[in-house]
Amino acid sequence: MGKTLTEIAQQLKSSSKKVQLIYAFNGVGKTRLSREFKELVAPKNHDSEDEEDLPRNKILYYNAFTEDLFYWDNDLNRDAAPTLKIQPNNFTDWVFKDQGQDQNIITTFQHYTSDKLTPRFNPEYSEINFLLERGNADIPEKLKISKGEESCFIWSIFYTLIEQVIQVLNIPEPEDRESNEFDHLEYVFIDDPVSSLDENHLIDLAVNLAKIITSNESSVKFIITTHNTIFYNIIYNELNAKACYLFERFEDGTYELLEKKGDSNTSFSYHLYIMKIIEQAIEENKVERYHFMLLCNLYEKTASFLGYQKWGELLPDNKQAYLSRITQFTSHSTLSNEAVATPTPQEKNTVKLLLEHLKNTYSFWQQREGE
Asked: pLDDT tens across 113-155, in order?
């Protein structure tokens, strides 16, 4: 018999693990679980005027409702520039007005997109325009960004905040911290931050998020849910001492949270799954820039496992040429679509050559026909 959503939330709350990673298909109830967990940890107390009773003091959470705080005003009647509006609440006021994180948010957003695309906040932090510089003397154009860029922007707000929070809480003595607003924080709940992101951004986001979590020396616990297998696998392989679950919903409306240990995670096998993605792209002649990043990650993990100091040592002859080619497509400075062109046929063939070299030279297990 399954459990109620409240019981699943209590199961997560009862865990002593500092990181809990949950995989679930879309529609199972990840967002509902995040809200149920928030109510369990920090229920709203409408009668209290005490700042310490605000939910944000105990839990920070990112889910689909976070994106609902932002909406577009296209103002077609006046033919005005499209503006992204912010619905003010305790969270947005805290980030922008109290913490003054606007410049850090811009820097993070441009890292994921382009340094030519700049958000501009109004003085009240109630709306944003996005300015695109064309590289000439013209006045930057105000434009409506894509859904993927919008998701990047909203994630950048949350990411910048948790980065600051962990930096502050990593100072062990509260009296030595630059702020004591986070002293009572217990959880960071991140629900599927990869919606609408292309795979270049997805991989970069996962690696950067893992770095923040790894750097966490405080008592704050992280819970991460996702439906995306690539995101799951990167987080799974980057983090130690985590609990991993499969979240399921049954026909009677009940749920189950199944812990997956050791070899049971082979259904999410990072190396085999990523190789399958690259092989499929090669077969369909659809190799793109992010496949170089996946290939680089495979080489890095293999080098680490085999004890090499540098993953470039695993490359075939003419190592520097191959290294330069991969670096061109995987450098953080080349994530923008404008920075690097679509791979040429020769560059696509490089992906095939290097994948085959890795599989054949370093004894990757390969399934034989009939097995």
From this structure: 888 899 999 999 999 999 988 766 666 778 889 888 888 899 9
Whether 311 and 299 have beta carbons less than 8 Å apart is answered as yes
99 phi and psi, to 5 degrees? -95, -15
Tens digits of residue pLDDT in 171-180: 999 999 988 8
Distances, alpha carbon 257 to alpha carbons 3, 5, 44, in Å: 9, 10, 26
> 24-70, pLDDT tens digit by residue?
877 889 999 999 999 999 887 655 555 555 667 899 989 877 888 89
Residue 365 pLDDT > 80: no
Compute the distance between CA of residue 238 and CA of residue 288 in angstroms, rounded to an integer: 24
Burial class (CB in 10 A: 0-12, 13-18, 19+), 55: middle
As a whole number of angstroms, the distance between CA 239 and CA 207 comes to 10
- The amino acid that residue 241 corresponds to is A
Two structure tokens written together for 284: 């369909």
CATH 3.40.50.300 residue spans of the chain: 5-44+52-268
| Tokens 């889910």 sit on residue | 63
Pick the range with the lowest mean pLDDT from 5-14, 123-132, 160-169, 301-310: 301-310
Contacts of 37 (CB under 8 A, 6+ apart): 9, 12, 13, 59, 61, 187, 189, 223
pLDDT at 310 over 50: yes
* CA–CA dist 38, 34 (Å, integer): 6
Q: What percent of the chain has pLDDT over 90?
A: 31
CATH placement of domain 5-44+52-268? 3.40.50.300
How is residue 216 annotated by DSSP? -
- pLDDT of 337 > 50? The answer is no
DSSP state of 183: T
Q: Where are the alpha helices (DSSP H) in 48-198?
A: 64-67, 90-93, 102-112, 147-169
Cα–Cα distances in angstroms (integers) from residue 141 to residues 45, 130, 137, in the given order: 45, 8, 11
* Helices within the chain (DSSP H only): 5-14, 30-41, 64-67, 90-93, 102-112, 147-169, 199-215, 229-238, 270-283, 289-306, 319-330, 345-361
Pairing of strands 19-23, 221-226: parallel
